Amino acid sequence: MALPDTYRKVVATKFTTNFREAAAIVEEPLPTPEADEVLVRNLYAGVNATDVNVSAGLYTPGAQPPIDLGLEVLGEVVAVGDGVEHLQVGMPIIGMYTGAGYREYSIHKAAHVLPVPEPKPEYMALLLSGMTAAVGLNVTGEMKSGETVLVTAAAGGTGQIAVQLAKMAGNHVIGTCSTEEKAAFLRELGCDRVINYRQEDFATVIQEEYPNKLDIVYESVGRQMFDVALDNLAVRGRLVIIGAIAEYVSGPEVVNSPRIWT
C-alpha cells in the first residue's frame, strides 16, 4: 500500500468546552513507526461526551494548545516498527489514547492495541465505554447477584453496557433516561424499572420505591442525580462515579452549604 506524505487531524487551537469553537483541521507529515510501534490508518473514531473535557485541556494538564483530539480508534495496520511480530500490515485493530481518534493516521505502541476479527465500528464500544462499565461495576463496585443497581444516563454509550452487565449478573436494574424512545430501548435491554425523568420525578420514584435500597449506583450525571442516589444507598451500598455530564459544559456546581451524610 502506497502511503501519503501527509495526513490530516483535528486539534484544539484553544482550551474551551465548546468543541466546535476549539476544533480545527491541520495537515502534517505522516509519521514513521519506531521500534515496537505501529502506524494505523484510522477507519472509525469514537465520539464521547468527555470530548469537551479533552478540548478544555482537562486530559492534558500542563500542555498548551494546540492539542490532539479524539480517543478511541478502529483502523488497519499499514506499517510496523522493528520488534513488532504479533501484528502485521493489513490487520484490523482497536486502540485508544488521548489524541488518537480524530485523525486519518495514528501511531500506537504495539502492545497497546488489540486485533479484532474485522473492521466493524461496534468493537469500539468495548474500549472506553465497555471497559468503564466492566471495571466500574465488577472491580470498583464489587457487583454480586441479587442486588439493586441504578444506572444513570442508562441509554448512553457506557450506561447501556452497564445495564446489560448488571442484568447478566442477575440483578434488579433501574435505568434513567430523558425520552420515551430511550425508555423503550432500555426495556429491550432488560431494565426492570425505567425512569424517564422528564415524565416522572426522579427523586420521588427513588424515595418511594427504593428508599435506602440501592446496592450499586453507576453514576455519570451529577448534581441532583448524585444527591438522590447517595441519600438512598443501602447499607454497604457502593456509589461508582464515572462522570458528571451535568457539569461538563456549565462547570462544577457551586456548593454553598454543608453536605453531611450519615
The CATH class of the largest domain is Alpha Beta
Give the fraction of residues assigned to helices.
10-25%
Instruction: Note the total helix count.
Output: 7
Kindly report the CATH topology of the largest domain: Rossmann fold
Oligomer: single chain
Low-confidence stretches: none
Q: What structural class should be given to the helix and strand makeup?
A: alpha/beta
Write the layout of secondary structure elements.
Layout: E1 6-12, H1 19-22, E2 23-29, E3 37-45, H2 51-55, E4 67-68, E5 72-80, E6 92-96, E7 105-109, E8 114-115, H3 128-140, E9 148-151, H4 157-168, E10 172-177, H5 180-189, E11 193-196, H6 202-209, E12 214-219, H7 224-231, E13 233-241
Helix pairs in contact: 3-4, 6-7
Folded structure, characterized:
With 262 residues, the chain is of the alpha/beta class. It folds into 2 domains: 6-121, Medium-chain alcohol dehydrogenases, catalytic domain (Quinone Oxidoreductase, Chain A, domain 1); 128-247, Rossmann fold. 23% of the residues lie in helices and 29% in strands. α7 links the parallel β12 (214-219) and β13. The longest helix has 13 residues, at 128-140. The protein is globular, with a radius of gyration of 21 Å.
Could you name the key traits of this structure?
single chain; 262 residues; alpha/beta; Quinone Oxidoreductase, Chain A, domain 1; Rossmann fold; 2 domains; 5-stranded antiparallel beta sheet; 7 helices; 23% helix; 29% strand; globular
